[in-house]
Amino acid sequence: MEASERRVAVVGDGERTSDLRDAVRDAGGILAGPAGANVGANGDAEAKTVGDDGPETALLVAVGDEAIRDAVVESSDSTVVPVAERRLAFDRDGAVDVLRRLLGESGGADAVRRVSHPVLAVDDGREQSARAAFDVAVVTDEPARISEFAVGFPRGWDESVRADGVVAATPLGSDGYANAADAPLVEPGGGISVAPIAPFSIRTDAWIAGDGVRLTVERESEPIGLVVDGERRGTVEPHRPIEIETVDRVAFAVPGGPRERADRKHSNNS
């Protein structure tokens, strides 16, 4: 294995980050800072950094939602190993195991499931668009203040809903706020999960869009906020569509590789 294939950055806060840096060292990996800085024995980035012609970081271990989001929205060139309490992320022990396999000399990397995760651009018609890793919502500023929204799909089909808002989520974010709003869980490559938030009707639809969706406020009565990955980004103007589309993709290692499935099957039969 080339030295550049052993370069691993571990970013995020907390005890898990320190544990995973130790796991990289134990597996023979070369620790690097997120910008390519070498990391010393104490875990701090050294003064010397790798220039544009230096070796690239092969793996980026992102610990926690904030670190994962940064890796996605910045379109990391490294394979991201997400560590968080999410369906498509590893817990601490799972991350240690996958690092051992990815850094192993015996081809264990073949047993790691790799997927491509979308980076969403969110354009509200203003000068600067936002990027999202998990979800995008248009929602009334006050709870239980129903408004009307249009949900537009790339093939020209539109739906209209009365609700507190609408949420659209990536596969990584589909188990969070979107799932609480009864949006479907989506596997990598499966599209964008979309659902109304607290709909007025007890019978309503949820959808899976392809690589994009358009959300529009159709009533002018209630102030509507634009929320990207849990952060409010301003007010949505009525009749001005919010365009959400996949603009890039990031390589992810995720739970569920052949070895893990075999271990789970053995465990269930014991």
Short description:
The protein has 270 residues and is α+β, with helices and mostly antiparallel strands.
Model description:
With 270 residues, the chain is an alpha+beta fold. The chain folds into 2 domains: 3-111; 119-249, Tumour Suppressor Smad4 (Sandwich), CATH 2.60.200. The protein has 5 helices and 18 strands. The strands form 4 sheets. A 6-stranded antiparallel β-sheet has the order 8-7-18-15-10-11. It has a 6-stranded antiparallel β-sheet with strand order 14-13-12-9-16-17, with no helix packed on it. β5 (59-63), α2 (65-73) and β6 (79-83) form a beta-alpha-beta unit. The longest helix is centred in the first third of the chain and has 12 residues, at 15-26. The radius of gyration is 21 Å and the shape is elongated. It starts with 6 loop residues before the first strand and ends with a helix. One of its GO terms (biological process) is NAD+ metabolic process. It comes from Halorubrum saccharovorum DSM 1137. Keywords: Kinase, Transferase. This is ATP-NAD/AcoX kinase. One of its GO terms (molecular function) is NAD+ kinase activity.
